[in-house]
Design brief:
Helix content: 25-40%
Strand content: 15-25%
Structural class: alpha/beta
Shape: globular
Number of strands: 27
Number of helices: 25
Largest sheet: 7 strands, antiparallel
Distance between the termini: 29 Å
Length: about 725
């Protein structure tokens, strides 16, 4: 078959060889999309190029633009593209791929379409591009998040950004949870935009829930007032983990009797997101400085990447968004049926398109709609602050009035939500608290709830035998608040005795095994030890859940988390302070064929595989996680780690999931090849046949493992 001239031109441009894709019956593109290393492919229909697989060919934006510019390249005829494993940052709707039905952009550093779209996978990108084809509009909206300690002046600033003469808030106006207010910003010669100001309550009781609302693609203001107990590092590290590259402004509120002492230059060197430091001024008195600060805030927002790109959304989405905004003036929530009715009125009648839009608006924090959570999925929350403040009312009440620390009863909700704003949705708001992993119902008393972060901070007294126990530690460069309390909510069904759960830990039990999890927040560590016949299985359950929680944060090489496995040499086994090996180092050593490492306490050589196997084995991990997933309570207590107002899965997670899917395809193709060869090998000896059969069984297990891995990660791509 002669190659079409356009393929020859692309080969010359990229300096590669492109092969015709295998044709499967009448399907011209089915054999095109699977990724196979160093095998670029094309598909044609007659003389027309209808598909390209240029995965892992070194494509950059410049090279892709050069392909688009080739005279014979006709995007309108293309039905399938696999551009994965390259360096493309943009894939735009205006390029004219109107008939595209198959797309794979995995493992590219995409900045467009927006991350809220790309993180949901290739099907979401295709859907977004098709929606844009029906009309688009630029929506100028942004989030401003004000963070800092209680009493620093966050509410004052939120008010005075809109009016420098606004009165100072009274003591009773202290923010309870979160307040969200829109502010229209207008500047001559510039497009008007709406700034949504999120004012976060600074009390420590709220800190662990902030993580659900701190978002990317936003502007942050950290406000300090110079008190000795203030810790700017905490706020800047939280923002660094959850705000990704969003800029931060640092404002010192000058208060009488407080000496301003902030080492800004030191902070600037530690936190790349920090943009500007303002000389201390008084939010109460310095009107001119407030006006100047407001101008800087406006300019910073106009410099956000999505503003500078004039990022577009489908016109129908904008129309629906505006209708929801109108309704939010009078309503806190609407039914899912009402949301679907509004979508249909604006031209989106298919339920799958409606669901995609609700997920998109949820990821931006414009609405809350937990489409996968029974009960909560029946309502679309128009005012996120209304919902979150319902949660904070329960926390405040439980802290102040509960007779037993950390406990509240469902009957108390009539008092807690007595203002009528939550009438008829008590069950939904309780489900929301469990969704945020803030509380759980007692198994034998379903109307009684426990809020782990409000339990006693003191570790209770209970029996524990140190013999034949396994240990594992997590250490953090920066430790976000609430990791262990979220773990307790997730695994509360394994708490047999509610007297052995406290604010920083718990004792879990599972099929003859016990585990103690203890958080040492000052040391930025979590200590785990297990004992009993199924101690490895229980260790696997706990570490899997902690890893899941850790994955909701943006840990990297600067702000990192490590697993530490204790040495099992004779000296360390007897020691209260054994030497600990980094788990990543052990697996790296294993991968490079290193069989022994040296203990730095005894200086004896210890087996790498022995160290790993001492704590958990892969079979134990898979079996334990599988059992947990099969639990009848699994649906309500697993994977409850969405972030509201931000993307709930980072792009790396999506990349790995999609890579696994490609591997499934590749492995399956390999199995077909091997199976065919096996059928042809009728002259194999019985022993060879047995070995072949055993090899096939192992290969099938590998494929099954990839599939299960994809499921456990929450596969989000339809590629």
């Amino acid at each position: 078959m002669n190659k079409p001239p356009i393929i020859t031109n692309i080969e010359q441009l990229l300096k590669i060889t492109i092969h015709p894709a295998p044709i499967r019956g009448d399907d011209l593109i089915g054999g095109l999309m699977p990724y196979k290393k160093n095998t670029p492919k094309y598909a044609i229909n007659g003389d027309h190029l209808i598909g390209l697989n240029l995965a892992n060919t070194g494509l950059t934006d410049e090279k892709w633009q050069a392909i688009l510019a080739l005279p014979d390249f006709k995007p309108l005829e293309i039905k399938a593209l696999n551009l994965s494993d390259n360096s493309i940052t943009e894939f735009r709707d205006e390029w004219g791929f109107d008939n595209l039905t198959h797309l794979n952009l995995d493992d590219n550093k995409l900045t467009y379409p927006p991350e809220e779209i790309t993180v949901k996978g290739n099907a979401a990108i295709l859907n977004y591009l098709k929606e844009l084809q029906e009309g688009d509009v630029v929506v100028y909206e942004a989030k401003l998040l004000i963070i800092g300690e209680a009493g620093a002046g966050k509410t004052t600033l939120a008010r005075k950004l809109g009016d420098p003469n606004a009165p100072m808030p009274k003591d009773k106006d202290t923010t309870k949870g979160i307040e969200v207010n829109p502010l229209l910003m207008q500047e001559k010669g510039e497009a008007d935009f709406t700034m949504h100001i999120w004012d976060f309550g600074g009390q420590e009781i709220y800190h662990s829930t902030h993580q659900f609302f701190l978002s990317k693609r936003s502007l942050y203001i950290l406000i300090l007032d110079g008190r000795v107990e203030e810790d700017p590092h905490y706020w800047l590290q939280v923002q660094d983990l959850l705000g990704e590259k969003s800029p931060v402004l640092l404002l010192l509120n000058k208060k009488a009797g407080i000496r301003q002492q902030v080492a800004f230059q030191e902070l600037l060197g530690l936190y790349p997101n920090l943009q500007k430091h303002f000389q201390p001024f008084s939010l109460k008195e310095d009107r001119n400085q407030i006006q100047e600060f407001t101008r800087v805030v406006e300019q910073q927002i106009r410099n956000l990447p999505h503003f500078k790109r004039n990022e577009k959304v489908p016109r129908k989405w904008a129309d629906i968004r505006n209708r929801l905004k109108e309704l939010s003036q009078a309503k806190n929530y609407i039914s899912l049926e009402k949301f679907r009715e509004i979508c249909a009125e604006k031209g989106i009648s298919e339920e799958d398109r409606q669901d995609f839009l609700s997920d998109f608006l949820h990821s931006l924090g414009i609405i809350l709609h937990f489409s996968k959570v029974p009960l909560l999925n029946r309502i679309v929350i128009l005012r996120p602050d209304w919902a979150t403040n319902a949660v904070y009312k329960v926390l405040d009440h439980t802290r102040a009035f509960a007779n037993i620390l950390g406990h509240f009863h469902r009957d108390e909700l009539d008092t807690i939500w007595a203002d009528g704003n939550y009438k008829g949705v008590f069950d939904e708001m309780l489900t929301l608290m469990q969704k945020f992993e803030l509380c759980y119902a007692l198994p034998d008393k379903p109307d009684e709830y426990i809020v782990p972060q409000l339990l006693s901070p003191d570790k209770p007294v209970y029996s524990w035998k140190d013999k034949n126990q396994l240990k594992l530690h997590y250490t953090y460069t920066f430790m976000p608040k609430g990791i262990v309390t979220r773990l307790i909510v997730r695994l509360h069904r394994y708490i047999k005795d509610q007297e052995t759960v406290w604010q920083r830990g718990a004792v879990f039990e599972y099929e003859g095994a016990r585990a103690e999890v203890n958080e040492l927040y000052r040391d930025k560590t979590i200590h785990i030890k297990t004992q009993g016949s199924n101690r490895k299985a229980l260790m696997a359950i706990i570490t899997h859940q902690i890893d899941e929680i850790n994955s909701t944060f943006g840990f990297d090489d600067r702000l990192k988390v490590n697993q530490l496995i204790p040495c099992n040499c004779p000296q360390c086994k007897k020691s209260e302070a054994p030497y600990f090996f980094l788990k990543d180092v052990l697996y790296k050593a294993k991968g490079k064929g290193v069989t022994y490492l040296q203990c730095q306490n005894s200086f004896e050589d210890v087996s790498v595989l022995g160290l790993i196997d001492d704590v958990f084995t892969q079979n134990m991990v898979e079996a334990s996680i599988g059992k947990m997933k099969e639990s009848p309570r699994h649906e309500n207590h697993y994977h409850f780690h969405d972030k509201v107002g931000s993307v709930n899965t980072d792009n790396k997670g999506a990349i790995h999931t999609n890579t696994d899917q490609r591997n499934i395809i590749t492995r399956a193709e390999d199995l077909i090849d091997v199976s065919d060869k096996g059928k042809e090998s009728s002259d194999l000896t019985p022993g060879q046949k047995r070995r072949w059969k055993r090899w096939m069984g192992n290969a099938i297990d590998i494929v099954r493992g990839f599939i299960e891995k994809g499921i456990s990660k929450g596969t989000n791509s339809n590629s």
